[in-house]
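Sample pair:
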Amino acid sequence: METSFKNINLEKYLEENRARADEKQKLQGFKFSNHRQEVIQRFVDRINKDREGSKYKAVTWSQVNGQLRTYEIADLGRLFKQCTEAKCFSSLFWWSLKKK
């Protein structure tokens, strides 16, 4: 099932995909303890989706969390929305993390 990410907000996206995340957690034996972990997992899923079939290896949750450690949850929501509206999610994500 293909989801359009242009007109979807972060909260709705999280709610629609909670069942999939719960199933994935059961398989991994991991439960999210807060909202921030869920949002970071969404970043990981989208980045890895873009990396399928490319020369790049899949990113881990720890790698993405390390890059986003200074961001507040509201900023993560804005960044996620901007990245989903972009042509290439991963490109905008990595570009936005560059030091200016």
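The chain has one domain: 10-96.
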